[in-house]
Write a structure and sequence with these properties.
The structure is a homodimer of 221-residue chains. Chain A has helices spanning 2-36, 39-70, 74-107, 115-141, 144-168, 176-209. Chain A has 221 residues and is mainly alpha-helical. Chains A, B: One of its GO terms (cellular component) is cytoplasm.
Chain lengths: 221, 221
């Protein structure tokens, strides 16, 4: 029984890693759609979101079945619960990529972002995608150091996010309120995506070490 | 054993209801701090947030212990997992109230909100507080109709939230970009708070009926 259990747990982890790669792919396309006002790419992200939602539901069902049939205790129990929490964060990352894609679609054929901030979104997009890809690796490897290293990339996202506010609130800002509002929301989507990625990484540290390294909190601004 | 189990489950639900009342109180004070530029009230919300975080951690520990010691199956298992998810949403509601309080503190002694939008935040604040209070009732009563009725209040929050964008993006908006950015973020905090309240309500419907009425999704804008 224990062996069957560990096989199932590995399956769950593999599905989880796959969800993270799906979230990475969604954010990659959504960022490209945003930067290049590419409507068909935006539509693709919007259409694909259901797949991540379904993967989460499936993952949760499997985790429930595992709990009900195997009644794991101690570390095994915490592992299953970490998987359930991680699946929730990964679904949320998919939603945030979806929000970016919808913003790109809403302004199409206009570009959503004025020139001076495009480079910041390009960089946050790259960081978010890389974070989600690394999270997939961490889920598979349970590498505690790699999980901890996620925070550095998250710090860089936070830094860009904070800088965006100084750009749009500058007295020389000449792109108006509507663009500033879009940038505010989009910046938050990228920042939250990175937070959730770190949070999944922390859950995996917990699975590996039995210790939870504090919850990831978003910034207020 | 089953009886001890149900007593523990009732305890968990009582703690959950208490967390919802804490979130309601936090949002009530945060909104007052925001509307009246009341620094000491804002500080109080900021200082109290740890209590909701601790309540969530305690709740999670108890749920884990219950799973490990009682190995519940079927509906009982789903109930415990619903409690774990609900505690996460309630903690998040506390965080969102915290964000509102921090926004009030950041602009102090200036008012964060220009006059034309104050009434909208007053109303969203009331709706959010009422939602969290009703969620506490629903957790205790498992009243499916009351849980479903939460969506109406959430719809009203969404409506105000959408309207805020038309106000700040109007060509006659004369309060500048910084205020628009604050309003954008604050509006989202109130909107997300209501979403999480509805999501807890749905988890409780699930506990009562065994059927999950779809996930609560936030709006993109």
């Amino acid at each position: 029984m224990r062996e069957a259990y560990h096989v199932e747990l590995e399956d769950l982890a593999a599905n989880l890693a796959d969800m993270s790669l799906q979230a990475a792919a969604a954010m990659k396309k959504a960022t490209q759609a945003l930067l290049e006002a590419d409507l068909s790419l935006a539509e693709q992200v919007i259409g694909d979101d259901q797949k991540i939602d379904d993967a989460r539901a499936e993952n949760e069902e499997k985790a429930y079945a595992l709990l009900a049939l195997q009644a794991p205790v101690a570390t095994d129990l915490r592992t299953v619960l970490a998987v359930i929490h991680a699946a929730e964060s990964l679904e949320r990352m998919g939603d945030l990529a979806l929000h970016v894609a919808k913003a790109a679609r809403r302004r199409h054929p206009q570009a959503t972002l004025p020139e001076p901030v495009r480079k910041y979104f390009a960089e946050m997009g790259e960081l978010d995608v890389r974070l989600a890809e690394k999270v997939a690796d961490v889920i598979k490897s349970r590498d505690v150091e790699a999980a901890r290293a996620l925070e550095e990339e998250d710090d860089r996202v936070d830094e860009i996010h904070r800088h965006l506010f100084t750009v749009i609130m500058d007295k020389d800002w000449e792109h108006g309120v509507a663009a500033a509002v879009d940038i505010t929301l989009l910046g938050r989507f990228y920042e939250r995506f990175a937070d959730h990625a770190v949070s999944v990484g922390k859950r995996m540290v917990f699975v590996a070490t039995g210790k939870m390294p504090g919850y990831a909190h978003d910034e207020d601004l």
